[in-house]
Write the structure tokens for this entry.
Amino acid sequence: MKTTLILIVLGLLAVNGYAKETPFIAYSKAAPTKNVFFANGKTADPAQSPALIQTESPFASKWIGNAIWAQKDTTLDKIVLYVSEIADGARGATISISIMEMDKNNPYGRPAQILQTDEKLIIPNDVKNDGYIVVNVTDFPMLEGRWYGFLLHFEQAAPNRRINFSQTVRADEPRAGLFYSIDEGASYEIGNTSLHFLLQSK
């Protein structure tokens, strides 16, 4: 009787959205369309694509992220990024992704604090150029009128470990803007574009 009751409770929690989903990354050739609440279009100039890098011999590091202005209260479920080019050393690598609160005085490029981090997310081996990585994050409540950001970085250096993401002009200004770090988060620089990405809610 106890076992049956526990199973019923777990089933109800799952149906009502209380069962926690483990964060992971998936690959998609096409952009998702379901529950998209923010989208920035891709650029026509792949040569200018921003890169996520963690290579060795010689060592080079570049963390990359994007600021977001929340237009309404919503629960962030997935961050979808367009991959312009992926190097072999990036497939199968692990990354971390952090959700951050941005500095009110410099919302495009200066994170104020980290609010949430998902670690050890594996880049699928089937990711190809000109496709999308879908990052399923731990559900995060975004509040209307606040500036947030997401930041990605590889967890370990390796030869040829690089992903070039596509970008777009900041046509939706002041809703989104690119920022990056070349010193592993000690300081941040502001880009003059935005990544091409989509956000999905539950």
In short: The first strand starts at residue 24 and ends at 28. The two ends are 33 Å apart (CA to CA). The CA atoms of residues 79 and 199 lie 5 Å apart.
